[in-house]
Amino acid sequence: MPLHELNALLRMYKYMYMSRKCEDRLIELYRQGIVKGTVTSGEGNEAAIVGAVSTLNPETDVCNFMQRDFAGYLIWGVSIYHLFSHYIANKDSATQGKDGNVHHGIPERGLLPMVSHLGAMLPNVVGATYARRKQGKNSIGLAIIGDGGTSTGDFHESINIASVLGIPVLFFIENNQWAYSTPNSLQFKCSDLSLRSAGYGIKGKKIKATDVSLVCREVNDIVQEMRSTGEPFILQADTYRLSGHAAYDKAEYVPADELNTWKREDPVPMARSKIVSEGIQSESEMQNLEEKWDRKIDDESNRALQAEKINPSSIGWNVFAETKPDITLPPHSGENLTPVQAVNHALHHALAHDSNVFLIGEDIGYFGGPFKATKDLFKEFGRGQVIDMPLAESGFCGFAIGASEMGLRPVVEMQFSDFSTDAITQICVNAGTFFFRTGRRLPLTIRMPGGGGLSYGPFHSEDLEGLYGTFPGLKLVYPSVVEDYFSLLLGSIYDDNPVLFFENKFLHRRLRGNVTFTGEIERLEKARVHKAGDNLTILAYGAMFHEVIAAVQAVEKRLDASIEIIDPRILKPFDWDTLAESVTKTHRLLVVHESWGACSIGSWIISGILEKVFFELDAPPMLFTPPDTPVPFAPELEEVYRPGRESIAETIQRLLSM
Ligand SMILES: Cc1ncc(C[n+]2csc(CCOP(=O)(O)OP(=O)(O)O)c2C)c(N)n1
Fold first, then answer.
1. Is there a domain that residue 612 lies in?
2. Which of 293, 294, 313, 333 has the fewest other C-beta atoms within 10 Å?
3. Residue 231 belongs to domain spanning
4. Catalytic residue check, 104
5. Which of 574, 648, 569 is nearest to 609 (CA)?
6. What digits encode the pLDDT tens for the residues 160-209?
């Protein structure tokens, strides 16, 4: 039952008191060198967070706690022992010591695991709230952000998405007047951030957030209204950060008179005085209670201190969740399909047989996407499964992450993979680290139409698998033949990890092939030897795979060589065995790709092969890529820039002559 219904000032005080005492103890442990990283205390923010969270229902609602919200975890039912264990990084740390501080969560209980990047969790809350409501719960989301965090792009993108889609998320600004050492006057120009609500066509309000009962009443009214209207809301809760940004910060930049004024409204003693003055408890009863709470804090924190430390050899170092086959689909076949049609068939098949699958992206609904990969899907499945998103790559990738955390299987379309760079924090930092830090699965497919050869210029032609390959925790799938567009896309959707699915635009309508799906979903594991050979192994994918085939056909006879061609299909995790076996046979390796060579997939593969089978090589392995410049626009320039069959043939000849 929500706490406010119990009129529980005393109970709310308990959480405020405990939070402050726990954080004092943590700061002590930090100063003793026992807690590492830092401690960012919520001193001054307690009434805001306790008042707001007390109105939620942890059974149905969703929220993200930030660095000042220790009390929120207590309300949500996380024990003091576990909170200390995470700070101390003992064997019961929620992230197995992979993260510290308050960076954890329990997604299955609506508590989204925290990432540091300010603003990044807001769209996660929007997506998670959407998912819970889709699952039939009357959920609302509490999306918490500080005054500084309101300057981020995700703040805008997530409010806009929630407003346009009608998702009841309370954007709760804990305005404690400072962002690290930056005062509000240097952060934004307006006097009241909630006035921005008008710009989104939603409601907003500003309240003073030092009196916990008042916060609870105000938020409760708003939350009740949101549950019936389904609309988001912006609430600015004004308070003051009563200590430094973190344990190491003396906050000498804070004007003393300003601090002293706000100290008179310190929410913890304020709530206590009210309890005593209203006769809810007598002074001596309060002292007894506080002693009891102190003993609990001592007991649990000491237990956490005495618990075994993390053992590096017994924790999981995997970055990928093991995918369990929990679904089979009916068989499907299609004839003479282009790659785009194969994608369309795979999406249709998943949507038709699994209500957990849904698509989001720009212009994917009625219009079917610029390449028509989602053609007619909106007509058949409607807004429940095919959602046009505002133009906000970071926002909608964050939305997809939140929905995935709640058990759905989102498929995101990037209009052009080039624009995915706007969502790097969400894709790489948030999704990519998810399994490692939480031990939970995160099924999420992001379709990435990329590559050049179409005279689209520097911003619509990039092939970015190399960029994403540098981050751990992302699977990279790059199909080269029509059958794989279908089977690997289903394999991606039913993988329990974030997968980037690269669709080479040059091939979109240039290939034809048949699809025969038996119903068994392929795991993302195996490369394929396209053509056997003895004198050279060439690994290539996407459009380059077909350029390599043409080049090999042109030179093989003339050079009296037999060349093996490998289609890797999945770039990460990479099938080292298939390539190492091939190189052990042919003694030469050429890798060709369309993305840049520096810090690339090709250079990573070559260094791996050197480590594994160096003594099998008769010549230095070669990487053939475009030059290290942006993709040029004019066809004459792009022709020179991009590896083609002639330049690949010359490279083959050079390598074979070594
Ligand atoms: C995107 C991003 N930039 C910078 C930081 C470093 N940083 C951590 S907390 C903080 C200040 C945050 O201020 P505010 O949002 O007002 O929250 P408060 O600390 O006051 O609770 C900064 C700059 C970060 N975590 N994320």
1. yes
2. 313
3. 3-173+211-306
4. no
5. 574
6. 999 999 999 999 999 999 999 999 999 999 989 999 999 999 999 999 99
